[in-house]
Amino acid sequence: MELRQIQYFIEVAKLEHVTEASYVLHVAQSAVSRQIFKLEAELGVDLFVRDGRKVRLTPIGKMFLGHMEQAIQVIEKAQQEIQEFLDPERGTVRIGFPSSLASHLLPMVISAFRDHYPQVHFQLQHGSYRELIDSVIKGTLNLSLIGPVPKHDKQIQGDTLFLERFVALLPASHPLAEQSSLKLSQLRNDMFVLFPAGFVLRDLVIGACTAQGFEPKISFEGDDIDAIKGLVAAGLGITLLPEIALNDNVPRSTVKVRLEDPQVTRSVGVITPNNRELPPTEKLFYDFLKNYFATIGQFNIG
């Protein structure tokens, strides 16, 4: 079984057409057909049901495809690691991030890193809090920015980069909108706009309110930050959000007000796997992150 045969097989399986696969692979259609026939002969099974040049996978072909896709991923990862070992400053960083860190923090750190290592490429993966943790555990990712930093998962290592304060986002018509700061207890009678159940930012807000002796009354839920901002702008409630999520992006008809009693915070950091080493380029970025935030300090971030 040759690597070329596997690559041809995967492309034909994806497109379900030999000729179209040959165009993508930049080889003759006859060469693709010949390699597929040789692969089937070696395996002793039919991988495709043929209808002219259109094909579809047999049941055993579908099973084989899953294994071969995994094999190609392993080969590509090995090639990447070898290339990065030879020249870490020209490799690729695959990093996950939550929506709350997307608009300001992520672009800021990538831009700063590329000032030093302009040849490094980035592949970005957005995800929810739990999705990002699972991706690092399973190996889909080796690095993810996250907030708050998980503390009790033995399969990952969490490094806190800084603490971030939450602020209140109020409709401009709110009675407290002109205050420079407020106490969380002053919002006990307001209707809140929060993330749905299962989102870590919702849990942080509810926990902070509960600690002040009240359960927030929820008027609406939104599954992304922009939706929540929009609902507040429409006057449908108030919310608490991480300050970074509002940097240079406070919607019209709203105001952000500092929370002073208590200060509601979350840790923001990076998670990595405990059971495998980072590839050289990702290790370069990981070390840069820690040094960068140790240098600039918390108060230059927000």
3D structure, described in words:
The chain is α/β, with parallel strands linked by helices and 302 residues long. Helices cover 41% and strands 24% of the residues. The strands form three sheets. Strands 3, 4, 5, 6, 7, 10, 11 and 12 form an eight-stranded mixed beta sheet that branches. Strand 8, helix 7 and strand 9 form a beta-alpha-beta unit. Helix 1 crosses helix 2 and helix 2 crosses helix 3. The chain starts with a helix and ends in a 6-residue tail after the last helix. The model has no long low-confidence stretch (mean pLDDT 91).
Quickly describe the structure.
The protein is an alpha/beta fold. The protein has helices spanning 3-15, 18-25, 29-43, 59-86, 105-116, 129-138, 200-211, 225-233, 280-296, and strands spanning 48-51, 54-57, 92-97, 121-126, 143-146, 156-171, 181-183, 191-194, 217-221, 239-242, 254-261, 265-273.
Question: What gyration radius follows from the Cα positions, in whole Å?
Answer: 25 Å
DSSP, total strands: 12
DSSP helical segment count: 9
H/E element string? HHHEEHEHEHEEEEHEHEEEH
Distance between the termini: 55 Å
Helix fraction bin = 40-55%
Mean pLDDT, nearest integer? 91
Catalogue the unreliable spans: none
**Would you tell me the structural class of the helices and strands?**
alpha/beta
Task: Provide keyphrases for this structure.
single chain; 302 residues; alpha/beta; eight-stranded mixed beta sheet; two-stranded antiparallel sheet; 9 helices; 12 strands
